[in-house]
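Comment thread on ticket #2218

A.B. wrote:
> Attaching the input chain for the structure job we discussed in standup.
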Amino acid sequence: MLQVNNIEVTYMNVIQVLRGVLLEVADDKIVALLGANGAGKTTTLKAISGLLKTEEGEVTDGSIVFDGKRIDRYGPGDIAAMGITQVMEGRRVLEHLSVEENLLVFAHHRKDRGQVKSDIDMVFDYFPEIKERRRQRSGYLSGGEQQMLVIGRGLMARPKLMLLDEPSLGLAPLLVREIYEIIQRINAEQKMAILLVEQNARAALGIADYGYVMENGRIALEGPAERLKDNQDVQEFYMGLSAVGSKKSYREVKHYRRKKRWLA
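C.D. wrote:
> Ran it. Output below, let me know if you need it in another format.
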């Protein structure tokens, strides 16, 4: 479904953030993109969704292909209409609007108005906690409820591919588990591909089919999620120290390899 082909991203024609990033998301699959703060994960999502263009960023090399069509030249509105929705980190709800109004805002472009109500019911089925607060201003929701709401808003766009940025950020472990179980259920029931950006490697790899680890704007390691989940190198990367207490980079790991593939 999605092919990110060796892209480079530069901000303001000066600052290079991504260097030769290559990844894929297949139909109906969950793919995890892992890495520390500043690794380039969110920039990768914004390159896919077109939001780079709102921040003086640009894909300066490589290409991004979605459903067989090159999309890196398009703006965020056009890309959203093609079926890609990005759920931003930080639980950015429209605080002055109610829960239900937040959901309706993200369905404003849809022409199938009769289906919108049933999709709101679908969101409330996945997240019954926010159904009880459907008339309440979203600014008064708890952090977990706000995270449920922003994922629900993403569902209202009826995407083929959802880009989820740090859905576990700042949440208690039990709530993280609940939200990840719902993400897995959405993937299975809606047949929706998901690209999931996370620092919480264990949570993300627990539901993903495949994973990538990013370091300093590059893909440093990749593989099936089951293989990555208990990989000692992944654990050491997230702890920041090796077993003997020395700093460790994936450039020192034997699994490191950089693939290059060009779109014909």
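A.B. wrote:
> Thanks. Noting for the ticket: The chain is about 35% helix and 25% strand.
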